[in-house]
Task: structure prediction
Amino acid sequence: MTLGARNTSSHERHVLGLRPGEMVRVRSPAEIFSTLDEHGNLDGLPFMPEMQKYCGRRWRVFTRADKTCAPGWGTRRMHNTVHLANLRCDGAAHGGCQAACLMYWKEAWLERVSTRRPTSVGELDAKGRAFIADTLLPATTTAGASAEEDATYRCQATQIPHASTRIRFRRVDQYVRDVRTWGPWKVVRGVGVELFNRLQTVSSRYLPSRLLIEGGRHYPFIYGKLPKKETPTARLDLAAGDMVRIKSKDEIFATLDHTNHNRGLSFDTEMLKYCGRTAQVRGRVERLIDEDTGKMISIKSDCIILEGIICTSDWHLFCTRSTYPYWREIWLERTG
Result:
């Protein structure tokens, strides 16, 4: 088969039905490239240049990616796709984006580990090198972008709407899959919270404020009260490897405006569970791709990600992306 000659639907290929904890081997570059269309996609999902270095190696399945999310698109259904170990994009082919997204792997790109002879990574042949140079690398940005500010990047995160389908809240089959991934208690609790929050939204439209529960806020409740332009700042000059304690929720609430933002950065409900915990700084985020537009955002103010502190989607209908929340330095304090 010619590399990149056609897009073979994952529904036509062997479906592995992988489960969390299983060991798999990433197929060779030639095998993976043969599944991709002329744009480097399989079922709308790009195989990114950053993923090639993992070919031929063994990894553990972290979770299935049956359900995912995208800004403005809500929860989405993805087929025959998993996340591996903690394999995150380093942004090397995407302008140095520092979002460190957990990568998606189509089952057609993987094989269960068995007694068969291991696949060797090896050197790419001329066709493989040409496919990367002519297809994968150019596909990461809009052709003809003359300057970085004009570039529109294309990665797995920006392509989620094209690689998935919409899931409606009332579809019962999604919750069956969620139970297999997360367990029954988390699903029952999450669906109950979602129903409550939808009721809060409707109530806020039609009821006077005195009759609203917690002012119509969504659960779990966050109480930011400051005017938008008066949120405070702090400077810790944190760097990768530093140890910090995440402040208490009351301390953080005191830094938020009435939309629960501090200088434009939101404090999300998924971050509440980490208040009071100690963590290591993974790094400062100064550049990241806007998933909605594909444009590179340059972040001038403090923006920190912490090792092991991820979104577990307790309150967002069980997306599996495990993204890193962004932290202001004023929400943190050094531990030593």
Observations:
- Residues 23-166 form one domain.
- The first strand starts at residue 23 and ends at 26.
